[in-house]
């Protein structure tokens, strides 16, 4: 991937944006001078900037980087933006509604968010919300899909330039720690996806698809580490099952505020697991602890 290709795709998105370049920069929380330098190729977009651009425009980071969605290990199959054609402000309003609903669901819970709450947060009317999302269920389901895409966009943006599998795996762990801020909000929504998918068959499909992609991301990283000779030759699928389950369990405990469970301890336990069970030892093999 050449930076000029990336800059060209961002310029194409900017041409579609109804406002000015300055307004686009404000939308993605970026200084206009930095945006101009990145568009001209004299500065690289950061991972956080790529994630915000993707979120604001309805594309994925995978498309920004490659121009395609062909990599099943990193791309997420989510609907493209559904803003009504012919309405100049439609795309921006649609995204504003999703962002507001995402924050409200993370803070209050899936069932506590009303259409009126979203309208108030957006400074608009309930009729406008229903214009983009005819039913409340549509709004909440698309918000959950959006949250899944945000998480995978961040992973693609952070990992695309990391070739070393060990470094990549540690970065994946870091991206799953429920620290304060956006990561913790993502965890809040992900827990709600788990809960709702146990009751709603439609959300069960969303959960199954997104979790399969997360599992595959880990498994592919493990297989790459085996090819590089830095990871044990144990079955990558089984290691991925164990590692993802460990991340899930620790994350839930941290988010629930269980005494003695912290982000720092979660990081340490996961790093120790990788050191003990995943990394190849100096003798050329790694063994499981005996019972």
UniProtKB/TrEMBL annotation:
UniProtKB keywords: DNA-binding, Repressor, Transcription, Transcription regulation
Per the record, the coiled-coil ranges are none
PROSITE patterns (UniProt xref)? HTH_CROC1, HTH_TETR_2
Domain HTH tetR-type residues, every copy: 91-151
Q: Which domain of life does this protein belong to?
A: Bacteria
State the SUPFAM superfamilies in the record: Homeodomain-like, lambda repressor-like DNA-binding domains, Tetracyclin repressor-like, C-terminal domain
Q: Which residues bind DNA?
A: 114-133
Query: Could you tell me which residue ranges the HTH cro/C1-type domain spans?
Result: 20-64
What protein does this entry describe?
TetR/AcrR family transcriptional regulator
